[in-house]
User: Fold this.
Amino acid sequence: MNVLERVRTAFAAATPEGADSQAFALAVRPSQDAKFGDYQANGCMGIAKAAGKNPREVAQDVANRVQLEPLAGVPEIAGAGFINVRLHEAWVAKTLGDLLNDDHLGIVSPESPQTVVVDYSSPNVAKPMHVGHIRSTAIGECLARVFDALGHKVIRDNHLGDWGSQFGMILWGWKNHRDEAAYAAGPVSELARLYRLAQSIIKPGEFLHDEKYEKVFELRKAGKVDDADKLFQKLKSDPSETWEQVEAIVAEGRRIANEARAETAKLHSGDGETRRLWEQFMPYCLKALEAIYDRLGVRFDHQLGESFYDPMLADVVKDLRVKGLAVESEGATVVFTESTKAPVLVQKRDGAFNYTTTDLATIKYRANEWRPDLLLYVVDHRQGDHFKGLFEVARKWGFDNVEMEHVAFGTVLGKDKKPYKTRDGDVVGLESLLDEAVAQARSVVDENSPDLDKQARANVAEIVGIGAIKYADLSQNRMSDYVFDTKKMTATNGNTGAYHQYAYARIQSIFRKGNVDIAALRASRPVITLATPVERALGVALLRLPECLAVVASELKPNLLTDYLFGLANTFSTFFDACPVLKAETEELRLSRLALADLTARTIRFGLNLLGIETADRM
Ligand code: ARG
Assistant:
């Protein structure tokens, strides 16, 4: 049990008569301000109010009965009936001493570990990965590492989109516009070119939805030809452009969209040549992804893409029908649900299965193969409705003993606060953004560490640059949008990855400067002294890693970990400014402070590792 859990358990046992002990325990929180102690029990006011009693009396009664030893003594009552718990310095010091030789920094494995499947990254292959993919990849990897560190069994699955409409576009491009020499030289860039080409032709066909002439189309549709023409004259950027030309482009877009759709259908129906091309393209696509995952330090246990489930889809629909869940509606097959506005479509009118059918097959497969307790889907918030419907159908279908959670996230924005794009409107490839952050980090490293040789600076720049992007992403409340700005991300002060990497390296440099043998220091188990408030604050903060991770896992929020680490690094900084370490007044104090510094460095390193961020001893 972590410290918070221990304090909560003590309070649960001292719950006032008639009140709910679980709720009472949950109202115990870490204190916001050290002057209110380390933990605060806030449940007495509500209980007193409900019972018509004096809250301070209720609190006093709890305080007299609660058994917090050896962690803390009799707590204090404050304000309207708060109970403040202050940990004994001696207990904190002793527990920190135990941590010196504990690789898990106080994290104790649960009695019954859970099996957690994390479905993350999951890009549609054949399109180059873009900035949006960093979110699912970084958040998913972090949650996987946190559950793993807490002692659960984690299965990481990259649910690749390897079977969808983007392949139809590539196949169409291949059949009509391929450049064999370019393909031989670089298959993935040629496929990406074909994809972009197809998209550039198809996109104007979708004018009616989002393009600049949408309003013109609407007016024409409404029969207001003159108004439409006036607006068109105003909007067009090329004076010689005629409306007939626009219409021709739109018609062409729709024609090609149909042809691409037909290619997708051929792939799904097992057409020999199409299938052979798909099999030829796939390894190249996977290899390109692999290069990015390597650079990001991400690895999966499985990469079972959509194509893997294709043979199971017909049975899914059949079974849903047999169980009376799926019914026919306007020629299509749907499941009626309470949680979504529209019924959930599982087979289209033309017989095609869809994204949802595949996800249902996936749930069945995962449930049968891996017997998970929890399924996490780290996917863009815009798929919220999809997952609501999916989970409801899956539960009705019988998968009601596995918890399913959509871990949603917001959008990455450019400096103009709009979804991140380059000037010519293309979404920027992820690879080039990684390069940009690393280059930015390189100039920071060159400036800060002229003493390192060139190769060392390049290595540090890579981990700072990649770490910067991950940290910036993970330190946001995941539902918020954020602005992608590599310059801010790589700053060495403020709540950034680099700030923490420097804090870590700084502690290592203390050890080097003092010629400290860390292994010997740990083994000697020096007595830790928490004589000053800053040492005490640092000591208490170091004990909180396990309880922080427990909350990260239950709320699925990596930013709670970055908040914790930022607080810890700042607390260390205050400590280091106030307390001489190598030049401490006595040898005993020197060893105690070195031990605190070591624990801080290890906690930062451990925490950064859970964020997928590396550290260097010298920066
Ligand atoms: N490939 C999908 C996309 O890019 C995300 C897949 C998420 N996972 C899932 N099981 N649906 O939108």
